[in-house]
From TrEMBL:
Single GO MF descriptor: FMN binding
Originating species: Dorea formicigenerans
FMN-binding domain ranges (all copies): 66-140
GO cellular component: a single term: membrane
Name by which UniProt lists this protein: FMN-binding domain protein
Length: 142
């Protein structure tokens, strides 16, 4: 009887080890699949952004509604790419919100599109800047 218990225990340990090893293999396979899908998504996103951003060079002005009123921006495009975004008017905006919202400008320049996340704590002002940039880009031909 003692031999049976030892053999059964050993068999149970081996089976548990095999199940554990199988789980490790499944996790690795899923991680590899996720990495491949992420690489494919990144490539598709880069191609989409590149094909969408065929702006006409120049300086364009746009307008958007912020927290306290209208926000006007000047967008500079060189070689079909967004090069600079400058706020030219935001008279009725709260200064604190506007300063926080200005962080969205670097996000827009990095992404080359106004379709970025807003700045936390300045949602309406950030949205106003994004909308103003989108308005200017529409005038730029895209």
């Amino acid at each position: 009887m003692k031999n049976f218990i030892i053999r059964a225990s050993s068999l149970a340990v081996i089976v548990l080890m095999l199940f554990g090893y199988n789980e490790v293999l499944n996790v690795r396979a899923k991680d590899e699949q996720i990495a491949k899908l992420q690489a494919s998504l990144d490539e598709d996103t880069a191609n989409t952004v590149q094909s969408q951003n065929s702006y006409t060079d120049g300086t364009y002005e746009g307008e958007g509604a912020g927290f306290g009123g209208s926000i006007d921006v000047k967008v500079t495009i060189e070689d079909g790419q967004l090069k600079n975004i400058e706020i030219i008017s935001a008279e009725n905006e709260d200064g604190t919100y506007l300063e926080t919202a200005k962080g969205v400008i670097s996000k827009i320049l990095d992404a080359q599109t106004p379709e970025v996340d807003v700045m936390s704590g300045a949602t309406f002002s950030s949205t106003g800047i994004k909308d103003a940039v989108a308005d200017a880009l529409q005038k730029a031909g895209n």
